Amino acid sequence: MNEPASNTASNPIPETAQQLSGSQLIIKLLERQGITHIAGVPGGAALPLYDSLVGSSIKHVLARHEQGAGFIAQGMARVSGEAQVCFASSGPGASNLITAVADARLDSVPLIAITGQVPQQMIGTDAFQEIDTFGLMLPITKHNWMVRSAEELLTVIPEAFRIALSGRPGPVSIDVPKDVQNQLVDITEWPEPGVAEATPEFDEQAVDAMLVKIRESHKPLLMIGGGIVYSGASEQLREFAEKLDVPTVQTFMGLGILPSDHRLSLGMLGMHGARYTNYLLEECDLLIGLGVRFDDRATGKVEAFCPQAEIIHVDIDRSEIGKVKNPVLSIQADVGEVLTIANQQLEAMQRPLWQQRVEQLKAAHPLILDGDDELFRPYGAIKAVASILDDTANISTDVGQHQMWVAQAYPFNRPRQWISSGGLGTMGFGLPAAVGAALAQPNRKSVCFSGDGSFMMNIQELATAAEENLDVKVIILNNGHLGLVRQQQTLFYEKNLNAVKYQQTVDFAKVAEAMGCKGVNLALSDDPMTDLKNALLEHGPCVINLPISEKEMVYPMVAPGGANADMIGGEAQ
Amino acid sequence: MSAVMTSNTVKLQQSVLMLTVNNHPGVMSAVCGLFSRRSYNLEGIMVRPIQGTDGAQSRVWLLLNEVDKLEQVMRHTEKLVDVLTVDRHRFEDSVFAKTEGFFEV
Hints:
The complex is a heterodimer. Chain A is an alpha/beta fold. In chain A, the strands form 5 sheets. Chain A has a 6-stranded parallel sheet, sandwiched between helices.
């Protein structure tokens, strides 16, 4: 291919028509979108794509499994807020991406999955590594495409970015048959890169009405979620909450919006929220949901959620309004824009009686972090790690007990500090997401809390972390069990423990070393606190095994389907 | 999918939606998939290209029997990228009323 020397991303309009293949076009368009890293795994139907990557400004990160590639891209997207790309081949390559794409959908992460497909003339013939990627991706993406000509890429790639980033963000997928990757097309003009479209317009009078309702209420609570993180509205939220003096609960996805020690922060609500937090929700007379979707882990039994309260709901996704709770007032809008307008007219007020009640319940039913001064206990381990790190560190988790302990006890103090699989609850998320966070923000430490169950589900990405020499630290709270399943069998199935104990133990420190990372087993350490500190503070990938008892439980706990007021455990002595 | 019911009492519970969609491969699948995924029962569906759009657009008629969740399902349907418009339609002069004869024993 003879490319004119003048054709660079900074000189987007070629003077004369040039011929590019579909795969070259994809790479050029991704470069023009500002993509710097792509995580992926090559394969037969993606060979042209990988051929065209050679010489690109985009750095390819070779994951060890396509699911790892998907979560690496998610990690990059979650810490940066920008759309990120992963590559896979057809058939098993594409199906291995499915979990990471579905995870991105439930947590509203802008992920662009590009997959190779068998040539068009072979589609429908049960060809080698053929799978209906379009059909599989359809229910788990915001939108997806099967590209039928190289020329279509000129509209599909910018569209993919536009859709992934607009409104409520989310994943898209683009399936590209091999013949389309090889097809030559004349390019005379580059399309504009795809960007988020304008946020929905809304009635400013509705904001006034919302403020009137909040001022008139006696016991209001704010419920804040991922929508505020994605809108970049944490500062506006803080001003809003402070001026109206409203105590604030954070959803799982909203952790970090308010600093953990902020006077108005009531921590996380719901299944593993503090007792006082869930009790306050029982008493509130107005609940203002900002960028939330009333997930069942947050609300518990919906009929029993905030029984005294009227609901105000602000969300950018119209289909979320009225889905679970019927609000008396709703605004479909970018929550940051609503808060900015609201803040312009706010006069500070105080709610001494309600705050007094908050303090009463806090004192009577605090969050009990049992054993938080002992390194080999869950809260103690988390507090020890937090004491060594500062707020610049990105904290990811896998899924299970350790995830809930971290959600409860880690002092999250900024949005996007917390990277965890909320909606889909994917074990195996943590390590590749931490790899992605480290790639996107190499100056921040990327620390992943995991469990011995979750960690095994994408452990192969240790080799990726070693290859890239990333500052990724994994702390395994190792109880030799699937702890949260064990907890539920203990509490709800009469201790009929089944399929939760790993008879075969794994020496994770040695596995780490075998994959080119450092491994530290604190169980064998003479001075575990010092070893932990050294392991965390030096640069480079490291796995830290930290044994805990399998009898540790996450408390309080609301039984699945139960009312939030009916919590088990976690009572003050 | 069952046939259109003829009893008047049942018909009162029925709603008809009229969609304008991009005539892409996969758009039918997207609409039907949304309904099954969200547990909304679809009683009937009829799709054809819209004349005069050069095959660019299709009209999708949907027959539903769930009035309660209608607003919600419309909002979800509107979010589909290839769905251009979603409107409620009276049953009486809908495609379903006019084709009842094709769905008798």
